[in-house]
Structures are given as structure tokens and as C-alpha cells.
Amino acid sequence: MIAQVIVDVPVNRTNRPFDYKVPSWLSPLIRVGSRVIVPFGPRKLQGYVIGIVEQAEGEIASARLKDVEQVLDDTPPLTPELLELGEWMSRQYLCPWVTAVQAMIPAVLKGKSEKWLVATEALEAETCGNSGLLWELARKRQMPLAEVEKQFPDEYLLVPGWISSGLLATEYQVTDRITRKQQSFVRSLLSGPELAEAIRSLPARAEQMKRALELFQMHEGQSLSTQMLQAEYGISRASLKSLEKKGFVAIEQVEVYRDPYANRRFFDKPKPDFTPLQQQVLAPILQSIKMGTYASYLLHGVTGSGKTEVYLDAIEQTLAKGREAIFLVPEISLTPQMVERFKARFGADVAVLHSALSQGERYDEWRKIIRNQVKVVVGARSAIFAPFRNVGLIVIDEEHESSYKQEETPRYHAREVALWRAKRNDAVLLMGSATPALETYALATRGRYELLEMPERVGNRPMPQVHVVDMREELHVENRSMFSRKLHEMIADRLQKGEQMVIFLNRRGFSTFVMCRSCGYTMRCIHCDISLTYHKTNHTARCHYCGYTIAQPAHCPECQSEHIRFFGTGTQKVEAELAKLFPGIRVIRMDVDTTSRKGAHEELLNKFRNGQGDVLLGTQMIAKGLDFPRVTLAGIIAADSSLHLPDFRAAEKTFQLLTQVGGRAGRHELAGDVVIQTYTPEHYSIVHATRHDYPAFYRDEMLQRRRTGYPPYFRLVLITFSHEDVPVVIRGAHTMADFLRPRLAQTTIVLGPVASPIARVKDRFRFQIMLKYRDEPQLSDLLAQATAAFEEWNKQQKVLMTIDVDPYVLL
Q1: Among 724, 748, 720, which Cα is nearest to 736's?
Q2: Binning pLDDT at 50, 70 and 90, where does residue 508 land?
Q3: Would you give the end-to-end CA distance of the chain in angstroms?
Q4: pTM of the prediction?
Q5: Between 24 and 695, whose confidence is greater?
Q6: Phi/psi zone of residue 172: left (φ > 0), alpha (ψ -120 to 50 degrees), beta?
């Protein structure tokens, strides 16, 4: 038997399967999708079995094959479908196949190859002499080489001599990071009558032992956790051990799942009556689910129109058909409320996958999926790789969100992967948003997706009233505060009424930059071409790209002036200003700084929901998906912050943010208001956002895209080069451009090479080429050829080249 294995060497020349013999003792375990350990040159590596054949081409070739050394899993972590998907992603996103496959499995399953120092049979006590290292190896027999260098630096240089003399040897070992949680349980070994007799036989002073046996009478046939017996009934471990010695019980270690929601109770609300609009959009979706055929839908519904109930009903019908559902949310800030709704509706049938879980919790949630113990997965981008075998529905909530695009290799978009899986499984793809991505909406108008519209809120509740404040006028009346008079007045009104508010600013920190008023010096990162952001909580200036941090200086580093000041506005500064203007106001701030601790998202949102805060202040993580009945005001501090970036999507992102943030207000019985503060109130993205008019924005933005030649009229590929020396990175970029130009269609536009908008990040200079194309059917093959042609040169020169198909981040 021959296993075809892709090995964990993510470079172009190894991007193919390698053949290995399967020893007879491993043949019952090995299957397509298994993780295996195989020899590869002098090393041992983890690999993935992508095929199994009975014999190689010819007996001689087969005899030269190396053996698979180990199979790491009883159940393969990859299904045949996911292996196919990995191959497609490898071609589509120009990455090694193994890199695509590794994006699909939990981090703990990604094995690490490590060099170990091993004692040979020749190493005995009499050969160790005065060497501490040799004595340690004589005892342990093996140690990781990195640990040897750390613990015995003085003797490390002697290791080659000991290897040549035959005392030591080196070998590669592959380890994964799997840990399984174990819990102690007690099981009764006695039947009912025997238990009664045992209780009578115990002396009167053995109260705890009697109580334990009485509990086993009450819970006949059940094992009880020692933790529960100790905490709830005060039965000591010594008493349980005594019962075990008497042969009455057995104490066993049982593997249990790490469940982040184990101590939570979820209560399902009665299903609401569907509105005519909800019934109208559900009808074709449910028909496709019933037929079990591929269909794709874009549900365009205003904020508060009841899209989530449509999703839940579609999932319910999918499960009723015996199939499985994947539900994607854009980022972890959305998951607490969503998880609550899903757990309440579907109970233990739900697994949750997102980055706020520990690696162990993610692994255990993933194991529930691979073992067919759940039917629904709720999670962020990577949940699209859930190893279901009978997917019937994939839902992408807030499908316009940029967080569905992975910014590291493999640079996939969850929407495209979902489309592939839906077609492969004859499943339904349902995408929903109040502000769909322009490309998605354009495809829906052309018939690639079926467009479903929900233009009204549930119960005919009015959309919030939008007030646009021209901040130039505020300056004319000498208002230099970050709050306009209108927003100040409305905050005071809500505080008086006891209602809640959401205030949005898309910048964390206290100030966006620090500048000397005397000489104009601006504090910049020494590793990146970006200004440092001041954080008041610890009086530091920090780079939000590489993390470089310095203490805030009292004097200008250039001219020694004391007039070094903070400019711009961040969330910390808004929080401080709110406290100053409205004494006693309770502000809950949500940004990267306050939510880095595990569980912080949920904790802060629960505080706000329970009325412990008047204002929820934050960055993009509060802009969407949140639903609080008492929120009647949404304030947007700097609506222009995303409007003037060097990004062709700047207007679209601004419209989406304003619409989504505004949609948090007035979602229930109380009417809502939105205050948008801007210096460009005449811009079409702001004008249309005030009217909640997506179709009008779509028409204006499509005119701009057609005029400038950007998606959906053209597709893009961004090729970025980075190196520590400018001449090297320029040479690499120009050589690639010269390679591509004669091989591309005449209609394809090559922009660059030019310096990237942020020309230096982490001490590496960046140059880029952008391809704008309409009809290049062989582009993937051409880019693969270019990658292979330049791989050796890039490696020698240490140039990092990345290719991003359909990029979202252009900075």
C-alpha cells in the first residue's frame, strides 16, 4: 500500500504529493486525510495523506520508497472534501497546498519538527566523566537540541565531537500540542440492594462515606464527578478513597470537553410571528433546502428588519432535513449575542469556533464537529472549514465585512470558500447585510445570486432620524470640543431619560499623533513609516503596526521644547472628555485595548445590557450586530476618518460604517436618533447614509468604479515585495513587472512598481505592483510560473514576495 503525502514544507518545489510505503502494521489506521509522520531528507516531518494506492509504478520504484513512520490520529482530521478544497485554494490563492490544508485544522494539530540529541548505547555512567550534559543524557536518554544549548552553553560546542565518537546522535522528532482535559469520576460497583447493605455496614462516624453511597442510590447507574461530590456535598477525597479500598466504588479519570459555555444557562424566547416580508424571503430559501439543491441568495435587509430570525428558521429546516449548517459572523465581537441565540435555540447541537477561545477549547469544539456530535457551527472566518460531511446551509451574516478576508497566507475570502463548499455539497448559500459589498450586490443584480429584499424594520418601526453636523460650522461658533452642540444636547437628554447610547470612533488610543508645537517634530515609529499613537492609561506612545512602544517624553527629542502635545482624537480621549462634560456618566469602552483579555467582550456587553453603563463607546467592534432595546442614540464622532484613505473602497466603507452604527439606535419600542459629525457633509456616501438609501449609494459608487477602473468592473491582484534594503526591493519588483508585462493581455493594466502607501513596516521597505484585469483566464497559472521562476532569487536575496488575489487591504 502506498500513501501519497503532502509534507509540511511550504515552498514551491515541494508543492506536490510524495509517495511513501505503508507498513502492514499501520495499514488499518491510515486513511485519506490522516496526519502522518514521514522521513523527508534528514528530517522527520508531519504530512497529510491525500491519496492511497495499492502499489507504486513498478516494483523497483516501490522498493526504494521510505516508510510512513506514524499515524497521528484515530480519525482523520481532514475530510476528502477539505483536501479537494485545499487543492483549489492552492491554485486560486497561489499558496502551497499544505498551507491551505493547515488553515483548516486547529493550531494544536500543527506538528512541529524539532532536532533532538539522543544518547547511544555507548553512553554509560563510566563514559560521562565530569560532563553535566552527558550525565543528564545518560539519565534522560534524549533532549531537544535547543534545550541543550540553553542549559549547557559551555558544553554545547563539544557536542559534534561526542557525536563523531559515537556517544551521541541526533534525530528529528515531530510533536503536536494536543492536550485533553481529564476529570475524576466515581462509579458505584454495587447494585441497589448491595448499596443498602453497604450503607448499613458502615460505622456511624463514617457520615461522608454513607452520604456518598446514598447519592449513588439516588443516581442509580450514573458516575458522579469528585469535584461535584466535594464542592456540593462536602465529601472528602479521603472518604472516596476509603470507599474504593473497600471495593464499593471505582475512581476513574474520564476525558471531558473544555466547554467555554459549560456554566451558562440559555433561555429560548418564543418564536416571533414572521412579518409578510420575512415570509416572502424565506419561501425560496426553504424551497431550496427542501429540494437539496445548490442555490445562493443575497438577503439585503435594513438594520432591524429581522434577518437573524430568517437565518434561524432556515437552519432549523436544514437540521430537520438531517443536514448540517455553518453560520459565519464577521468577528468575535458579534459572537456573544449570536452564541446566546443559537445555544438557546439549538442547545448542545451548536459548536462555537472563534479566536477568543483558548486553543484547548477550540480543539474540543472542533472535535465535536469531527465526531458528528453537533449539527451547527457558529464562528468567525475560519469556521467555514468546519469538517462537516453533509453541509446543507451556509449563512454569512454581514457579508460585506472585510474581516472575512484573510490577510495572511492563504489569503482566502470566506465568501468564495463558502461558495465552493455550497456547490460541492448541493447546499444553500445565504448571505445577508444591510450594506452588501458592492461586488456582491452587482453579481446579485446580474443573476449570479438571487436577490431578496427586506426594506422595512420589523413591526414597521421607523428608521432612526439622522442629524448631520457640519463640524466646520461648529468651529465658526468657537466650539472646539470633539462633541458638536447637537450631540452634546442629545447625550444630556438621554442621560436625563435614563436611555442608553452608542458612540463610535474608529481610532483607539488617546491621541492619533504626538507633535512638537515649537519645531513641528512628529513622533514616528523607528521601524515603520507611521506616527505613534498616545495611550493615556500607561502614558506611552505606541505603533499599531509593529507594537513598538516608548514612554511619552516630557521634552521634544529634536529641540528639547516642553511644548510637545497630543493631537487628534482616540477612544481613550473621548472617554475622558465624556467624564469631564457629564460628571457621573458611566462609559463602557470597547476597543482592542480593553478587550484583549479572554471573555472581555462578553463581560463588557453584558454590563451594558444589564444597565450598568450609559454609553457604549468603541471602534468597529460596536458598529454591527449588537441589539439593545434601550439604545436610542448613536453618535459618530469623526465620520471622515475612513473617507480620505488611499483606498478605492473608502467611500463604500464609510457608507457601511455609518449605516451599521446608525442601525444600533431605535431597534425596539423607543425611537432612535443618529448624529453624524463630519467636515464633508456633501459627500455622497454621507448624504446617502443619512437617508438609509443603499440603492442610490450603489448607483453613485458604481459610476466612480467604472470611471476609475476598479471592482466590480475590473479584478485586482496585488503583488508586494519587502526587504530591509531599498535597492534590493526595487530590483525585485521591477524584474517581476518586466516578466509579467509581455505575458499579460493588452487589456490588463499594470500599475507600478511603486512604494506601498505605508512604505516601511517592521524595518522592511515595501514596493508593490497592482494588476487590473478583466479577461485573464490563465492568470493563476502565469502567477504560479512567476512565483516558481523567482523563488530561488527571492530566497537568496531574502526578499519576501506576497500575492494577494482580490485584495481588501491596500495600505
Answers
A1: 720
A2: very low
A3: 50
A4: 0.83
A5: 695
A6: beta
